[in-house]
Amino acid sequence: MPVPRTRKVQTSPPPAPLAAARIEAGELALGSRAALAVWVGTHRSQITRAARGQELGGEEGWRLAALAAVVTALLPVYEPGAVSGWLHGHNPHLNDRRPLDVLAQGDLASVMAAVQAAHTGVYA
I want to staple 22 with a disulfide (CB 3.0 to 4.6 A). Which of 10, 11, 68, 78 is the partner? Predict the structure, then answer.
């Protein structure tokens, strides 16, 4: 008697819950998914996929993860509405550069040091 063949069903990987949280943090920082896509350096459709749980890879994924880490660190210090202003404002701890610009250049450590200074009340 022939044995029925079973077909392998190809499934997509399970959604990554942090991917959606990173998009939410990015929207808080930049105001919209479109602005987030421009800052990250990807197409808006990639941001939509990430919001649904698909991880964003490469340099773009690193930028998004770094931005989310900074936003998460800022929330205990500032109200959500003030986080964007802090990221867009010139910061004396960053030689009067904007945290978003420093972060875009890949210097997460300097931005986190500025966040720590804000948290502890240190003035430059």
Answer: 68
Is the whole model's pTM more than 0.70, yes or no? Answer: yes
Residue for token pair 């420093």: 102
φ/ψ of 54, rounded to 5, equals -90, 125
Residue 12 domain-assigned? no
**Residue 39 within a domain:** yes
Give the number of domains in the chain.
1
| Residue 3: inside a domain | no
Give the residue numbers spanning the domain of 92: 17-120
Rounded to whole angstroms, the Cα distance separating 87 from 114 reads 10
Query: For residues 79-99, b (16+ Cβ closer than 10 Å) or e, as one string?
Result: eeeebbebbeeebebbeebbb
